[in-house]
Amino acid sequence: MSAQQFPSQNTPRYLILVASLVAVGLSLFQLWQPLVGFFPVGSLPFESVLGQQPATYFRPIHLSWVLVLGFLVYPLGREGGPARWLDGAVIALVLWASARILIFDYQSIEHLLNGLQAADFSAGLVLVIATLEMARRAVGAVMMWVGLIFLLYAAFGNILPDVLATKGFSFERIIRFQVFTGAGLFGAPLGIAAGAVFSFVLFGAFLQVTGAGKFLIDLSFAAAGRYRGGPAKASVIASAAMGSISGSAIANTVTTGSLTIPMMKKLGYKPEEAAGIEAAASTGGQIMPPIMGAGAFVMAEFTKTSYGDIVWMALVPALLYFLSVLLYVHVLAVKGGFKGMQGQTGAWRVLVDGLHFLLPLALITTLLLWNYSPVLVGVAGSGAVLLASLLRSQTRIGFAQLIEGLRQGAMLAVSISVACAVAGLVVGTIGQTGIGLQFTESVVALSGGQLWLALILVAVAALVLGMGLPATAAYIVLAVMTGPALQELGLALITAHMIIFWLAQSSNVTPPIALAAFAGAGVAGAAPMRSAVEAVKLASGLFVIPLMMAFSPLLLSAEFGWTGVFVAALVTGLLMLMLVMVLQRHLFVAVSRAQQVLALVAAGLLVYPSYLARIVGICLALAIMLANRIQPSRIH
What is the structure's pLDDT at 403? Predict the structure, then answer.
């Protein structure tokens, strides 16, 4: 770990070393836990410590480790002095509190009858406060405030108006519920972050240190670079490949964007367009199988659906999203008269040089589709990447790169695990107070029983939550609060969750706080808000495709099968093409005002859930495209 990764350049070397050791230790612990299950019981020395830990102990250990690493890496003060000592005291308190949690007697009913002992209450309070503070440092102040507001609601909900009122709970009961049950701080969100998500974050870190990530980007440029608008199309393809692995639309925008955005600007794209393209493409990485970021693992747990089934369901909508982004990119290139890149290395040559890196990607995809445990799949993928790197001398890594991968994986996991822990507090409060049922009734009442209006309300809620929460945390909160409402209005459980999952990604590109678009604007030297406007145009599929999930068989199911999905995909693809014409006023040549209006009418007919309306919409859309194709090019 370099000093540059700490807020201060003056970080003492011993702290850098300590943080590195803690990070590597966390990754080794996480790798060991799924593997130890293959050893027979009683075959390991010190089995109570080295053996497989049940969730009751594994989750507190993971959170404690993450908090200690977080307070080392995200210090209170940028310089040494009292702030450093204060962080040291907090670390000591976290370790003490975690020890109290681990020795707590969950079998006894004493705490249910007479409440927690003072030491146990204090330990729970320390962990809750430390988690909220780490969320403030590693994720953002909004994440902390969301968690805190929900906890205060549990305590003082009895003084609110009737529509929001709930029974007020004592702080002892809140801490007991949130910390000493599996429904709050150590609930499902943290369990998923500590298991499947961490293993795939580690997999992504190993992809980076071995050069596999660079290979995927190079292959994208070799495949698409020479075509019209090549760098932009390569950006979309690279983001589809890398985004689902990186777990962060913002990180993907910065990493791939540092290469693609300058090339797009050089080709002729405006800075705002280049930033918007990269942001929209990187956001799509979070919905692209086989990994789909952290949220899909949460979805599998919430819906009790196998991850392999979720991958199949998500595949066609994800491909449609990237197809829509590519359509926008292509139309922009046609409109601007852009050419492709010259002097690109052939795709076949790049593929041959890095073919061995496709083996681990094929392995994890196959194992996920065969419904193996995602935790084991992530561990297997990490091992496969390391072994694949040894197959070629130019990609062979040494001990230093191995340690760097372990360190990077743990560092990247801090913000994810803390965000999921705070989301667990929110879920716990919803369960303890029953506010979820009240919210469901409110959504149904406001929508008047109309599914399309309920979807708009959920989209607005997703946008508001996404202004301050990571997409995974926003999905968790939305799923618990709005999922039952969508089910009550007729959607299947998995369909409702898939729609919410997609809408939770929208805040990355939607003003006023479009974090991925703003990150792209920083790389492009563009105006942030104009970049966000371009990004939301390019990412319009995030809103349209969930609508089609609700009103057409776009998700693979036993009832409709691939035939239904294929027909729905064609309709959705045509709908996206109409929106491109409306928003860009160009297709083969400039689109006239009349064609623009007719394209909007066709889009409305394609969305409307009626066979007759969609047939008319298809015919109208094809007629508009034909008219635009045969009309002479003109200055518009």
Answer: 93
Q: Are 286 and 545 in contact (CB under 8 A)?
A: no
**pLDDT tens by residue, 468-490:** 677 888 898 889 888 999 999 99
Q: Measured in Å, how far apart are the chain's first and last C-alpha atoms?
A: 55
Higher pLDDT, 540 or 250: 540
Determine the 3-state secondary structure of 586 from DSSP.
strand
d(CA 309, CA 495): 12
- Closest by CA to 131, choosing from 342, 330, 424, 504, is 424
Q: What's the rounded Cα separation, in Å, for the pair 269 and 236?
A: 15
514: its two tokens: 């479009």
**Spatial separation of the C-alpha atoms in residues 588 and 551, rounded to whole Å:** 30
Strand residue runs (E) in 228-340: none
Q: What is the pLDDT of residues 38-62, one digit of tens each?
A: 777 766 776 677 777 888 899 999 9
Q: What are phi and psi of 586, to 5 degrees?
A: -160, 145
Alpha carbon separation from 306 to 178, 195, 299, 471, 562 (Å, rounded): 28, 15, 10, 21, 18
- The CA R_g of the chain, rounded to the nearest whole Å, is 25
284 is written with which tokens? Answer: 């799509």
Spatial distance between the Cα atoms of 523 and 459, rounded to a whole number of angstroms: 28
Which pTM was predicted? Answer: 0.84
Q: What is the residue type of 620?
A: L
pLDDT at position 244 is 58
Given a cut of 60, is residue 5 above it in pLDDT?
no
What is the mean predicted confidence (pLDDT) over 91-95?
A: 96
What does 535-565 look like in DSSP terms, one character per residue? HHHHTTHHHHHHHHHHHS--S--TTTHHHHH
Q: How far is CA 619 from CA 579, 596, 615, in A?
A: 16, 16, 6
DSSP code for 35: H
Query: At which residue do the structure tokens 């004592």 appear?
Result: 170
